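Q: Convert this sequence to structure tokens.
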Amino acid sequence: MLFNSFVFLFLFLPITYAVFWLLRSAGARYKWLAVTGYLFYSYWDWRFCLLMLFSTLVSYFAGLGFLRYDTDARKRKLLLVVPITVDLCILAFFKYANFGLGIARDALHVAGADITIPHLDVILPIGISFYTFHTISYIVDAYRRQITPTRSFWEFTAYVSLFSQLIAGPIVRFRQIEEDLERIASHDRVALIRPGLTLFLIGLLEKVVVADTIAAVSDPLLAAPELLSTATAWIAMIGYSFQLYFDFSGYSTMAVGLGLLFGLRIPQNFNSPYKALDPSDFWRRWHISLSTCMRDYLYIPFGGNRGSEWFTSRNLFLTMLIGGLWHGASWNFLIWGAYHGAILILYRMNAARWDALPAPVRQASMFLLALIGWVPFRLPTLESTGIVLNALVGGGVSAAIPSLLFVVPFAVAAAWAFRGPNAFEIDVRRSTLRRDVVLWCAAGAVLALIATDRSSPFLYFQF
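A:
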């Protein structure tokens, strides 16, 4: 079920919202959020609800174990290792099994061994990376005593299956919404309506009007990379850079708005990343929930910056490499992670010289670096990645430029991304006639575009 669909906007959301506020007790609201989360997920494939439920049960009982064995270090270690191993094994099977088998197949071929390794017919459960991160972060934070595990099964189930961020994030740690969950029976519904709806409408605008309009230009170009000229390669990759940002930022902004409608403050996930002045700044602004999780659960445990410059560089590189692999099981995502690890290391080594450059030069350079990184992120194979990179540096074929009408959405996206305020820099609680008129006009435009059947899945559904 898509946020940008009539079945969600006019059926699922109104019913879920109305029943939630009619219920009065915390327990009833937990159960309703859990049930609606599973209904939302089952709209795609009900069979994988069982997988999510199993992961939820493993983590929930691990949390109870932490409460019971508070002073037993050995059992606490087991309660940390065993559930995480179970979660990672499930994720590895569905997401990485065929990638691993492919590597083994290639290695045996190089070694001259004639052994047939089959390709598994495995369907990747949508959102599995996100809810696995939720359960693992819960276990780790409970082990570190950063949270007190909940005894309420329905509260924990509501947290894991929260429909607003279940499929594509943001990655919400239990401690970030624990207070709101505990106070779920006493939230002020009236105070939450305006900011929740405003953020949701802004997110819809980002996705349907900006991202999907640009996709109509960039997707057809990138579908045939061998036909790209240098000019069309740049048009395609600039378009994809904006498309990906407004698509994922739109989803995250909608998730925050939907969370507010139910009294849950989901954290901001994007902070105008194309305004970043350097690689470190970029990762403080892009997919904030993932970058902070990688920092807290990978980079710091690896040793962070507590050792020598070499060890710090190693930790950065490994963290980003794993971050690339988290996005998908392919060499392209590993290359993307390694690329960002490399530019982070190079920035650390040359920060003084980089920071001495004028701010506009640093911002434009960082956007260019991000754009180059999006090539392996977007293209499905190493071969197609090489073709597009070659086209970008002048090796493309002669191809026709798309209609110049593409300049309009590109200009709007550039102005918003480089200079405009993001949704969280707007005072969404304050009402003005001008703002309300703009928002409702935007809502009308969104509904008109959805009615033309232009709605498309969010890009991060595939991760």
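The chain has a mean pLDDT of 90.
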